């Protein structure tokens, strides 16, 4: 087996697949991709509506938080893709770039080159937008973005409910403005999921200079003389070393990237020494600044018998499945979270700070606790720019041990206030006249909350992750930054981090599209530097 490469990419998730494609496009580059998970050939990876069935299976790391004192002392479930494509193979396929404000904030935090105008070309480069043609969207990119072929009637009612409350309709959340309500664009192609594995990796797997290893668990990065020179990994019970002559690129996500760095001796020196690990580079920001979108739901019982709750009922399941297999249309082609919206909780917010996800079905505890009978609809809200921040730390020096993840949700007064405000609006949307013909009343774990204290308690009791962890290896120039604006790890040459962990702050919206953009931009920086080195214009410094 070959063990000398130019680039080693740790993780074949949303970022790693992009990097694998772009870096191996030069046939002179020998590229190795190490993915801890399996191949992405499961049927429920392909079927859009099947993604909740992938939770707590072999394609999910199935992490949990440490006990969360702010959330009724619960251990909270955190699904993460352990499969080619990573979370893009198990997510709800919603394509949201975030706000213009997000990237301009990144730039003002000392990250030159990351303003909205500077990252927009990379969003467009990655995208093949089937429906919309304007200056905000791309055509011909690997990632297919489109409208669903199926939208449930209750989702249309949700948008009407927002109009009833005076909110504008927005036909493109990724266009000129983010504010308003409408239907989400999705990463699908011909009725199937379009993960980054499908978009970027599979079309180039035949390249002789690209080697992709699945079920390859990384133990640590090899660092010699302040330079990353390779990786130690385990596969099929065997231990291997692979060397990288140019760079090691860490794309393992907001939980696993800080874990790998710490296992490699990069992180808070005191924490590493406490576990008996050598301190290669003291970087106290590794694993800090963890941010996520915590979702709270209002749920309603419905008399509409064609909600998504009916999709697998007997005998309709056979009709729905046959329709999907034959035409790739119908209920099984839905992404469940069909509609949504972005609003301001107060006029002083620089950009919409509350997002809604509407599901024309019950969605309780990630779908695990949905009622066996009946129909419902769910309105989930979240604070887009939370001030509550957590940590990812090593629970053990053993690379097979899951990291200790503390999200610290709902730990600031500001997050509490805006969550309560958002919950009240979600409830108003569900109780509008538009829903009156379809509503049978409130569905909840207990009595309907009546005041702010009860709403806060319900959120703490039932709130969950919406699967957007970021910012644990943040980009910046302050003492807690882990990477610079070129995503190079401070103090270690030949090592970059390229994934959601480098975000200085979480983007205002679903995070998959921003991660693809980050990887596209990173690949461009890496290849440009490679060309400059080859031309003798500059020396490689990282």
Structure report:
There is one protein chain. The protein is an alpha/beta fold. It folds into two domains: 294 residues, FAD/NAD(P)-binding domain (3-Layer(bba) Sandwich); 180 residues, Cholesterol Oxidase, domain 2 (2-Layer Sandwich). Strands 1, 2, 10, 11, 12, 13 and 24 form a seven-stranded mixed β-sheet that branches. Strands 7, 16, 17, 18, 19, 22 and 23 form a seven-stranded antiparallel β-sheet that branches. Helix 1 packs parallel to helix 12 and helix 10 packs across helix 11. The longest helix has 23 residues. The chain is globular. It starts with a strand and ends in an 8-residue tail after the last helix. The mean pLDDT is 96. This is Choline dehydrogenase. Its EC number is 1.1.99.1. It comes from Microscilla marina ATCC 23134. Keywords: FAD, Flavoprotein, Oxidoreductase. GO terms for molecular function: choline dehydrogenase activity; flavin adenine dinucleotide binding.
Mean of residue pLDDT? 96
- CATH fold-level label of the largest domain: FAD/NAD(P)-binding domain
Radius of gyration: 23 Å
**CATH architecture heading of the largest domain:** 3-Layer(bba) Sandwich
How helical, in percent, are the residues?
10-25%
Whole-number tally of structural domains: 2
Helix/strand/pairing category: alpha/beta
What sort of overall outline do the alpha carbons produce when their principal axes are compared?
Answer: globular
Instruction: Report the count of strand segments.
Output: 24
Please identify the oligomeric state.
single chain
CATH class of the largest domain: Alpha Beta
Biggest β-sheet description? 7 strands, mixed
Range of strand content: 15-25%
- Give the uncertain stretches in residue-range form: none
In angstroms, what separates the terminal alpha carbons? Answer: 27 Å
CATH homologous superfamily grouping of the largest domain: FAD/NAD(P)-binding domain
């Amino acid at each position: 087996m070959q063990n000398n490469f130019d680039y080693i990419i740790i993780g074949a998730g949303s970022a790693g697949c992009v990097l694998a494609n772009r870096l191996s496009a030069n046939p002179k580059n020998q590229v190795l991709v190490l993915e801890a998970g399996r191949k992405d050939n499961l049927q429920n990876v392909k079927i859009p509506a099947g993604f909740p069935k992938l939770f707590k299976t072999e394609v999910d790391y199935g992490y949990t938080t440490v006990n969360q004192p702010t959330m009724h002392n619960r251990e909270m479930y955190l699904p993460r893709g352990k499969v080619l494509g990573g979370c893009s193979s198990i997510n709800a396929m919603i394509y949201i770039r975030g706000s213009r404000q997000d990237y301009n904030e990144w730039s003002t935090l000392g990250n030159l080159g990351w303003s909205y105008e500077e990252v927009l070309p990379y969003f467009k480069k990655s995208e093949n937008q089937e429906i919309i043609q304007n200056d905000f969207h791309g055509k011909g990119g690997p990632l297919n973005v489109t409208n669903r072929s199926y939208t449930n009637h209750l989702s249309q009612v949700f948008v009407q409910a927002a109009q009833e409350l005076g909110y504008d309709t927005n036909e493109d959340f990724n266009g000129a403005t983010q504010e308003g309500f409408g239907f989400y664009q999705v990463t699908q192609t011909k009725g199937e999921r379009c993960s980054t594995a499908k978009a970027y990796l599979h079309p180039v797997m035949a390249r002789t200079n690209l080697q992709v290893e699945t079920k390859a668990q990384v133990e640590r990065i090899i660092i010699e003389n302040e330079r990353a020179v390779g990786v130690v990994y385990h596969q099929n019970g065997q231990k291997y070393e692979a060397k990288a002559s140019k760079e090691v690129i860490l794309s393992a996500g907001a939980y696993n990237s800080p874990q790998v760095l710490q296992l490699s001796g990069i992180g808070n020196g005191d924490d590493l020494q406490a576990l008996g690990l050598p301190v290669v580079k003291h970087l106290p920001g590794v694993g800090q600044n963890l941010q996520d979108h915590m979702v709270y739901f209002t749920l309603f019982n419905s008399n509409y018998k064609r909600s998504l709750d009916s999709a697998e009922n007997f005998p309709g399941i056979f009709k729905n499945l046959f329709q999907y297999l034959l035409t790739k249309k119908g209920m099984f082609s839905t992404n469940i979270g069909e509609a949504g919206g972005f609003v301001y909780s107060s006029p002083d917010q620089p950009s919409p700070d509350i997002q809604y996800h509407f599901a024309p079905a019950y969605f309780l505890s990630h779908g695990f606790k949905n009622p066996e009978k009946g129909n419902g609809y769910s309105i989930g809200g979240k604070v887009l720019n939370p001030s509550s921040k957590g940590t990812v730390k090593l629970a053990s020096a053993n690379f097979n041990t899951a990291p200790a993840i503390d999200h610290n949700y709902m730990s600031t007064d500001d997050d509490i206030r805006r969550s309560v405000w958002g919950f009240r609006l979600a409830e108003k949307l569900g109780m509008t006249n538009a829903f009156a013909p379809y509503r049978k009343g409130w569905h909840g774990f207990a009595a309907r909350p009546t005041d702010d204290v009860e709403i806060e308690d319900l959120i703490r009791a039932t709130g969950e992750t919406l699967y957007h962890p970021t910012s644990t290896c943040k980009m910046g120039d302050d003492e807690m930054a882990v990477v610079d604006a070129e995503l190079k790890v401070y103090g270690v040459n030949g090592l970059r981090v390229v994934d959601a962990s480098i975000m200085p702050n979480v983007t205002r919206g679903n995070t998959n599209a921003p991660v693809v953009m980050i990887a596209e931009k990173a690949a461009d920086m890496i290849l440009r530097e490679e060309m400059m080195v080859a031309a003798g214009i500059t020396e490689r410094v990282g």
